[in-house]
Design a protein that fits this description.
single chain, Rossmann fold, 7-stranded mixed sheet, 4-stranded antiparallel sheet, 9 helices
């Protein structure tokens, strides 16, 4: 990112601090940058919330139970996605594994799966259920180059402060016939346009970068990856719309949110701009 960035919109941290942030647009990358960019030493404090879903296993409300049920369904869908590739070894690294749900499901399906997670609390929860299944980031150094057939980042890329060096590490670890699978929100979706500064998937400052389909293709091409396919995450339009309505009105407007999510998915059938997308990437052919 450089001086070519231009102001896009002003928003705030609705979850933890209440602080104001701006999103700046980089035309060359078709990407948004959270500004000011938090110092590394300050990032952990912005995750200090019981509302942060990937770090909790508690189900306190009806909404939590609905989220849990849908998440079980989406985990199975993710497993079907990774199982379609013709690869030599069933090795899987789930980067940003949270409490290890996907690691465990993959392990039960015959994958040699492990996870990496920054949150000590989430790692502890994961390893209580399945010992030595989720590790800290330093553990990656122990993995041999080209040892992982599948590397997944489910709504993780947008959180990584050292974006380029992280992608370079994924490239080192990925097998020649492997796939890098990245799921991120899409700031060009209808629900993002509808809710604007209140769109929950901006989630500043935890989300440091904000992507479009074009920006993902451009970013990973710099590291000799090519985009093989994209897949919509249909539930995200509804879930994000519910959270966005709470940001805007102080409570969830269920009917309005569900209609907005439905409309977002309907329009995306033509545009391809779903609320969130899964990108399947592979090493570019020489």
């Amino acid at each position: 990112m450089n001086e070519s960035n231009t102001f896009f919109l002003k928003t705030k941290d609705f979850s933890v601090s209440g602080e104001n942030f701006e999103l700046h647009y980089n035309k060359a990358k078709d990407m948004l940058l959270t500004t000011p960019f938090p110092a590394l030493k300050d990032l952990a404090a912005y995750y200090d919330s019981s509302q942060y879903d990937s770090h909790t296993t508690q189900k306190r409300t009806v909404f939590d139970w609905v989220y849990y049920i849908v998440r079980r369904h989406t985990l199975k869908r993710k497993l079907r996605l990774i199982s379609q590739f013709k690869i030599q070894k069933k090795t899987l690294l789930d980067y940003g594994a949270g409490v290890g749900s996907f690691v465990r499901m993959a392990r039960k399906s015959g994958w040699d799966s492990v996870g990496v997670e920054a949150s000590k609390q989430a790692r502890s929860a994961a390893n209580q259920v399945l010992p030595e299944s989720v590790f800290n980031n330093e553990w990656l150094k122990n993995l041999p180059s080209k040892s992982q057939s599948i590397i997944t980042l489910w709504h993780v890329l947008e959180h990584l402060p050292n974006l380029n060096s992280s992608i370079q590490e994924f490239k080192r670890l990925l097998a020649d016939d492997g796939r890098l699978i990245v799921a991120v929100p899409n700031y060009k979706s209808y629900d993002a346009e509808y809710y604007k500064a209140f769109w929950a998937a901006y989630d500043v400052p935890r989300h440091l970068w904000h992507f479009s389909p074009k920006s993902i293709a451009r970013l990973f091409s710099q590291f000799d990856f090519e985009l093989e396919s994209t897949h919509p995450m249909l539930f995200d339009a509804y879930y994000v719309s519910l959270l966005s309505s709470k940001n805007k009105y102080g409570r969830m407007k269920i009917i309005n949110s569900l209609w907005t999510g439905f409309k977002s998915n309907l329009l995306a059938k033509q545009s391809g701009d779903y609320s969130s997308l899964i990108y399947v990437l592979k090493r570019a052919e020489n």
